[in-house]
UniProtKB/TrEMBL annotation:
NCBIfam families: PRK06846.1 (NF005312). It comes from the Bacteria. The lineage of its organism: Bacteria, Pseudomonadati, Bacteroidota, Sphingobacteriia, Sphingobacteriales. Residues 240-428 form the Amidohydrolase domain. One of its GO terms (molecular function) is hydrolase activity, acting on carbon-nitrogen (but not peptide) bonds, in cyclic amidines. This is Cytosine/adenosine deaminase.
C-alpha cells in the first residue's frame, strides 16, 4: 500500500473499493451498437487503392469484449452510433501525467531555463507545490486525453530526492480512480539524474514494485558524466526485476549515438530485453547521414530496440520512414502537454498521425490509412492488402467513433472524436 499523508490512507482504500465496484458494473454490461460504420476493404483502380469501402453494422458488446458483428439492423434496440466511423482507440506512448501544469494558470516556457540542468533546478523548487494538487489535475488531464480518443498511456513518473516516491503514489491514486476508462504502464524516470542527485537508492526501490513496468533514464553523459555507469545500473535493474527499459535521450552527436549503441549491445547480449527496450526522443538519429541511419536502423531492428518519438520538427526531423523500413518499432506520444518543458502539445494522437503524414509526404489513400497505426500502436481496420482485420469477435471493445468516412480522411482532416469506448465502457 502506498504511503500518503495522514488521513489519506482510508480515502485511498475507499477509492479502491468504489473504483472496483464501478469497473465490475460497467464491464458486465451487454449492449448493441447499431449504425456503426466499419471499413471493409480498399477500392482499387488498377493496383492503386483509390478509396476505402465501408458498410454499416451492429456490434454486440459483452463483458468488455466484442461478442458479435452483424449486418446493420435499424429496428434493433441499441445505442445509435449515427453512422460514425469506428476505429481502434488511441494509445499515447510517452506522457508525464505526474507533472503536467494542466489545471494551473497558463504558463509559457521561460527563456531563462535552457538546459536540462536548468530544468532540474526549477523542478526541485516547484515539485513540492505541484504535488499538492497533482492527483486532481492528473485526473483532469486524463479526461482531456479521453476527449481525443486516448484509452492507453505509457506514463513516466519522476523519481528523485525532491518528490521521492510521492510522484508515483499520487499518479497511482489518480490512475486507480480512472481505472474503468484507462489502462496505463509506468516508467520510473530519474529526471534529475541517477548520480547527479543521488537517486540510485530510490530507483532500486521502485524497480522492485509490481506497478512499475519500465526503468527509465535521462541523458547519461550530460547529466551524470558517464554513459556506462548509469546505463549499466539501468540495464541491470531491468534484468534483475524483469522490467523493460525506456530512457530519455536528448543528446545529439557522439554521446547520443554511443548511448543507443550501448542499449543495442545490451539487448543483443540479453535476449530478455529484446522487444522491451526503448529510446525515447533519440534526437541523435535525426542528425546522421543516410548511410549511417540505415546501418543503425538495421541494428535497432535486430536487437529489438524501439524508438518512442513525439515527432519533433524544430531543427530535428526523425528518420521514421527509415526506421520502419527496417522493422524498428516506432511508438508515438505527446510528451509535453502544457508543462514547463514545452509550450506546445495538444494531447491529440490523431493530430500526431496527421503530422507524420504531413512531414513525410504520406498523401495517398493507402499511405494515410497506414499512418493511423502511429495513433493506435499498429492496430488497423484493414491490413496492407485491404483485408478486414479489426474489429473481430473476441477483441477488447476499445474503440473511437468519429465523423469521418474512412481512416485516410480521419488522419488527413484530424476528424473530431465523438465517442470513446474502453473495454466496453462508454466513456463518452
Amino acid at each position: 500500500m502506498p504511503y500518503f499523508a495522514a488521513g489519506s490512507r482510508k480515502i485511498y482504500q475507499r477509492c479502491l473499493i468504489e473504483a472496483d465496484t464501478i469497473k465490475t458494473n460497467m464491464e458486465n454490461q451487454t449492449y448493441v451498437l447499431k449504425n456503426v460504420l466499419l471499413e471493409t476493404g480498399f477500392e482499387y483502380e488498377g493496383d492503386e487503392a483509390k478509396g476505402t469501402k465501408t458498410a454499416l453494422f451492429c456490434i454486440e458488446v459483452d463483458k468488455g469484449k466484442i461478442a458479435n458483428i452483424k449486418p446493420n439492423d435499424l429496428n434493433i434496440n441499441g445505442v445509435d452510433a449515427k453512422g460514425r466511423l469506428m476505429l481502434p482507440a488511441f494509445k499515447d506512448m510517452h506522457a508525464h501525467l505526474d507533472k503536467m501544469l494542466f489545471g494551473l494558470p497558463w504558463q509559457a516556457v521561460s527563456a531563462k531555463r535552457r538546459t536540462v540542468k536548468d530544468m532540474i533546478a526549477y523542478e526541485q523548487k516547484m515539485i513540492p507545490e505541484w504535488l499538492k494538487t497533482s492527483v486532481e489535475r492528473t485526473e483532469k488531464m486524463i479526461d482531456f486525453l479521453h476527449s481525443y480518443g486516448t484509452h492507453f498511456i505509457r506514463s513516466h513518473f519522476n523519481i528523485e530526492p525532491t518528490s521521492r516516491l510521492d510522484s508515483l503514489y499520487h499518479l497511482e491514486e489518480a490512475l486507480q480512480n480512472k481505472k474503468e476508462t484507462l489502462d496505463a504502464e509506468l516508467v520510473a524516470f530519474p529526471q534529475h539524474g541517477i548520480y547527479y542527485t543521488q537517486t540510485e537508492p530510490l530507483l532500486k526501490e521502485v524497480a522492485r514494485m509490481d506497478s512499475v513496468t519500465f526503468i527509465g533514464g535521462v541523458d547519461p553523459y550530460s547529466i551524470d558524466g558517464s554513459i556506462e555507469k548509469p546505463m549499466e545500473l539501468i540495464t541491470q535493474l531491468a534484468l534483475d526485476n524483469n522490467k523493460g527499459i525506456d530512457i530519455h535521450l536528448h543528446e545529439r552527436g557522439e554521446s547520443g549515438i554511443k548511448t543507443i549503441e550501448f542499449l543495442i549491445d545490451k539487448a543483443l547480449e540479453n535476449p530478455g530485453l529484446k522487444g522491451k527496450t526503448y529510446v525515447s526522443h533519440a534526437f541523435a538519429l535525426g542528425h546522421l547521414s543516410a548511410a549511417e541511419t540505415e546501418k543503425i536502423a538495421e541494428r535497432l531492428a535486430g536487437a529489438g530496440v524501439g524508438i518512442v518519438s513525439s515527432v519533433p520538427f524544430w531543427g530535428t526531423i526523425m528518420p521514421i520512414p527509415t526506421l520502419r523500413k527496417y522493422g524498428v518499432e516506432v511508438l508515438v506520444g505527446n510528451d509535453n502537454i502544457q508543462d514547463h518543458w514545452s509550450t506546445f502539445g495538444s494531447g491529440n494522437m490523431l493530430q500526431k498521425a496527421h503530422l507524420i503524414a504531413e512531414l513525410y509526404g504520406y498523401t495517398t489513400e493507402w499511405e494515410l490509412s497506414r499512418t493511423l497505426a502511429f495513433a493506435t500502436r499498429y492496430v488497423l481496420p484493414l491490413d496492407d492488402h485491404g483485408s478486414q482485420q479489426w474489429p473481430k469477435v473476441g477483441d477488447n471493445a476499445d474503440a473511437v467513433l468519429l465523423d469521418a468516412s474512412c481512416s485516410a480522411e480521419a488522419v488527413a482532416r484530424i476528424s473530431p472524436v465523438k465517442s470513446l469506448i474502453h473495454k466496453g465502457n462508454i466513456v463518452f
